[in-house]
Amino acid sequence: MKRALSVTREENFPEWYQAVVDQADLAETSPVRGCMIIKPWGWGVWELVQQALDKRIKDTGHENCYFPLFIPMSFIAQEASHVEGFAKEMAIVTHHRLKAVDGKLVVDPSSELEEPLVVRPTSETIIGDAFRRWIASYRDLPVLVNQWANVVRWEMRTRLFLRTAEFLWQEGHTAHASKDDALEETLKMLEIYRELAEDVLAMPVMVGEKPENERFPGADATYSIEAMMQDGKALQAGTSHYLGQNFAKAQNIRFQSATGELEYAHTTSWGVSTRLIGGVIMTHGDDDGLRLPPRIAPKQIVIVPMLREKPEDADLLAYCEKLKTELDGLSAFGLPVRAHLDKKPTRSANKRWDWLRRGAPILLEIGPRDMAGDNVTMIRRDKLRDGDKVISTGLAREQFLAQAPGLLAEIQKNLFDEAKARLDGNIRADLKDFDAIAAFFGAASEDDEKSGFKGWVRAPWSRPTGSELEAIEARLKALKLTLRNVPMGQGQPSGACVFTGKPAVEEIIIARAY
Amino acid sequence: MKRALSVTREENFPEWYQAVVDQADLAETSPVRGCMIIKPWGWGVWELVQQALDKRIKDTGHENCYFPLFIPMSFIAQEASHVEGFAKEMAIVTHHRLKAVDGKLVVDPSSELEEPLVVRPTSETIIGDAFRRWIASYRDLPVLVNQWANVVRWEMRTRLFLRTAEFLWQEGHTAHASKDDALEETLKMLEIYRELAEDVLAMPVMVGEKPENERFPGADATYSIEAMMQDGKALQAGTSHYLGQNFAKAQNIRFQSATGELEYAHTTSWGVSTRLIGGVIMTHGDDDGLRLPPRIAPKQIVIVPMLREKPEDADLLAYCEKLKTELDGLSAFGLPVRAHLDKKPTRSANKRWDWLRRGAPILLEIGPRDMAGDNVTMIRRDKLRDGDKVISTGLAREQFLAQAPGLLAEIQKNLFDEAKARLDGNIRADLKDFDAIAAFFGAASEDDEKSGFKGWVRAPWSRPTGSELEAIEARLKALKLTLRNVPMGQGQPSGACVFTGKPAVEEIIIARAY
Fold it and tell me: Which family is this sequence assigned to (chains A, B) (predicted)?
């Protein structure tokens, strides 16, 4: 078989990533700076991610709603840390009319807004404003809402799915009567993100708390799931924030408690975005293109008839139509199997590679000989580069139908296991000090992205704060390293903090990151 | 029973509308001019509308995708009529940074964009730009895409759902090799909109072609579905446009035909929006609030236990839980029944009115006596104002379970039939000239919105164009009247045009409108 992509992961990982996005027909850049066009195949993946997560969000008692795209500038200024973190690079609407001058369109200066509007970079302030109106008594709590929306952050260096000016996400926002309730909510949604990443996207993650300097602006605690990409970098794939009473105090979100006192609510927020698709690409893609976990593959089983523009084609198509109907009647993962018959007039060999690059989990190529023997020829996308047994020929149709749901489950598991082995096998936990860590990662050269796989370091630390933490951050930054998170559920660490030499209180993940 | 709303339709229709939106907890105004907050109950309705339409869009071969929120100002200028129609009131992004000056946030003047960006009012131009890149040969056609998105039009006078600065919609965009193919697509989607309105929303519509002066800016033909509200006004509930080669020529969307020539593509676009929810309210609402057709009711059957804060409550709740589980196992309209058990500590009488105002189709009130007899007490929302038989008491639980899916279908049909009778019975087709029409509608006083039901007029006309049409429009406008559409499938009209006196070629609908 000919190779599908022009560049391998080892040759140049960033270029390989771009080639997969392009060749798998997931997305493309648009004429609007930093904004992407998500093409049907990429959108199909996102719809399946949305469905899986939306069900979990609703099953845990949250309700969807929708808040305005625009936020008055004065709202952004309400929460001090929030200003620091978000009031920088945003899209700002200042006028509301164009007019023609000498046959050219210009912004009409007379249409200037009294107060500029910011295109939402996140919605804590506009939703908090509604919470203030909605909440009067402890009986109104908890308020548990979520929205699926587009947000804009004016990023300077963009990369499709991973960092774009406009991106799509869900943002959950909740208000509670107590810190305990709000913390429980924060961790509940973190667990749902872990489940989404691992069970649906087959992307194993490290679940933990971000260090102080990496918190969401205005949060008392931020938790994340971090995934290991095939270049060893970490990808923050979802975050859940306990906002304490910070936003409640800034926005006057108060309630009368059961004992009659006025108290500030405790709020949370949590979100995942189209960035997850970037994570799927860099977790499962190979040098032939994308490999999609069956749960998020818009087409799980693709039938390609080997048409020859001859009269016999009609019989072959009828055989394939029947096969598709049979597959449509099957279930996998509790949902109908998504089968597709590719009847386009493209050459069959091109179709094969189109679907393999796109990552369809199972490809069935059906020629006259398959039909004659009531067989199918099957290609398993996950095994494509393993060499033998990639193509099963002469597989009885009946037998394939009986096995198909199980095969999809096996492919889902296989992709997860492969990624899980990579994650577990590439976390160095034996480095004792900063110099050893620096030596492990090597110099941060301009082209370090091409310099091969490094993995992560898990190291004991003393949980420094303030200026001590800032100094550590600066040292790490010079090596292009970052503190990712403090994994949950860890025991008492042994040894001294790799940064401060003080007794360690926990272990933290250090990595290069997207 | 006490009346649920403070104002009736007859007393003041616009105030009644606002009261329903508010009291049924559908949406509220936001601190951002013209933008609404869609609350969970309203959003739940929209999700069901989306699901029903999305399935039909996909079943007809379209694929979903996503295009940028922003459109470069120069794109808007590409299609001349489009500029006329859309380049007026839009949200314009001119800067990308805020900065603090003397402790106050201001727009950073140094962050001015080289080219202003418009927040999409509709996406023909940015999607056409992609079509130009995607389409090379007739083999690439048709291109059939759709997106679910938010759009912004800077409206001066807004009303929740009906006219808001930001609204949510789907916009389909397609490109074809021939005029015939594109026209077929335009009418296919129009038919899907009719089906959505009538079969899903239970909202009967008049399907027809808009007159020349009401076309989408840049279209060769615009078709619409028009619904009759309970104040007699027309609501344009969906449009489908044949754009001819206008956008293709403006944007250079060309393909090589089978015979090797370069030709311009024929494009279409079509959309429906959250405005549909306004249509549902004004079609089905009554003086007690909203009545939801079961197909779009987020909760179809709501169980209210008559709790008394006594130990017996536990048994009653167990009875209700079991009932809910049984209802969850039923199907209606090919989907699982959406049942809800309201366990909130609110007083039962308040709950009754909460759910009736929200329009839940069936309410089950369960007290100790119902439980003792293994019965339910049922309130049918659609019959609430009919007087007798509203409440069925002593209905055996088993019997109700057996009847529930059929009852939901009956309610759906009942709401449609009621609205259909109103539409069919209130179109005057016997008025012979403009004066008779003017007399029928009466003066356009400031408070004509409160002046009672008028209905529509269907009148023969000669299909005038250009300045002749403009003059007619002006006369109609003085009476706050508009030309709605020319109904499809009509025969040869009799008589003379009510406007020009020339022989009529078809009949057109005249009405006051939203």
Answer: Belongs to the class-II aminoacyl-tRNA synthetase family. ProS type 3 subfamily.
